[in-house]
Design brief:
Blueprint lengths: L3 E5 L20 E2 L2 E2 H11 L4 E6 L4 H6 L4 H7 L9 H9 L1 E6 L6 H7 L1 H4 L4 E4 L3 E4 L5 H12 L2 E7 L9 E7 L6 E9 L10 E9 L3 H6 L11 H10 L3 E5 L3 E4 L3 H14 L5
Helix pairs in contact: 5-9
Length: 277
């Protein structure tokens, strides 16, 4: 059973400066909800109620958002605006939030390792909030949990991308399993390869189910040329042991870490909820 979801949320969000100088990028809103709230809702819909968030300096707004605001609630109580807080109050009621600090920005692998005290010795989900996913039925984490229950190993979400974009993503090599057309036994991974060096066009997105042995593996991963510890390097070690499955999820992903993707997500959800621009 997956009980906990880890949210790495310590990054600077430099592509959105100056907006992110004082506002965490995870709190930038798509319509009326911050990105991180979409991720928390996805985890809740998968039956996860323990949210472990790895933050850094200047991220206090995250803690405040997922906490009661007695003054605001008092002001709105009994008014026609009271319903605006209903959604977030339900999330706060159903969830437990814990926090850890990533003291240095040393890559996604290091961010996940920083969350080890919050997770302990159990499998857990990971959601990168700037990968916003919209699924018609089950959310991506729900889909990954189904695959985890079958294979009992680390599971990563993937999507097909144009070969010209492989240099932006971690790319997998693998073989289809159990006569499926969407589930792969991962044999290798390459971080942001050039098009002519990419083993496939299957890109890793910001959704994972990880087994707890990943922490010790990360501790022994050597930093890359930029001094960062990449989660793909740790997963590659697990893959060599036959312990990583990649699943081509059903749904649509928006890269809200880029301005273009953020705008596409805003337009998509505006149309979905019938809001005219």
């Amino acid at each position: 059973m997956i009980r906990k979801c880890l949210f790495p949320a310590a990054g600077y969000g430099t592509r959105f400066l100056p907006a992110t100088k004082a506002v965490p990028k995870e709190m930038l809103p798509i319509l009326t909800k911050p990105l991180l709230q979409y991720g928390v809702e996805e985890a809740l819909s998968a039956g996860i109620t323990n949210m472990a968030i790895v933050t850094g300096r200047g991220k206090r707004a995250i803690e405040d958002h997922f906490d009661n605001s007695f003054e605001l609630e008092s002001q709105l109580s009994g008014t026609s605006k009271d319903h605006y807080l209903k959604e977030i109050k339900e999330i706060i009621k159903k969830s437990t939030f814990t926090y850890a600090r990533q003291k240095q920005m040393l890559g996604l692998g290091h961010a996940i390792l920083s969350g080890e005290p919050l997770i302990g010795e159990e499998p857990f989900a990971v959601v990168l909030a700037d990968d916003l996913c919209d699924c018609n039925k089950n959310g991506v984490i729900s889909q990954l949990i189904e695959i985890y229950n079958q294979y009992q190993c680390s599971i990563i979400a993937i999507e097909e991308i144009p070969m010209s974009q492989t240099s932006k993503y971690g790319i997998i090599a693998g073989n289809l399993v159990d006569n499926s057309n969407n589930t792969y036994q991962v044999t290798d991974m390459v971080e942001k390869p050039d098009e002519n060096q990419a083993p496939s066009n299957m890109a890793i997105i910001g959704r994972y189910i990880l087994t707890p042995d990943i922490f010790n593996i990360i501790k022994n991963v050597k930093p890359d040329k930029n001094g960062e510890i990449q989660i793909t390097d740790a997963l590659k070690i697990q893959a060599k042991q036959g312990k990583v499955i990649a699943y081509k999820f059903k749904g649509r992903r928006f890269d809200c870490g880029s301005i273009e993707g953020f705008l596409k997500a805003t337009n998509h959800f505006a149309k979905k909820f019938s809001i005219n621009s």
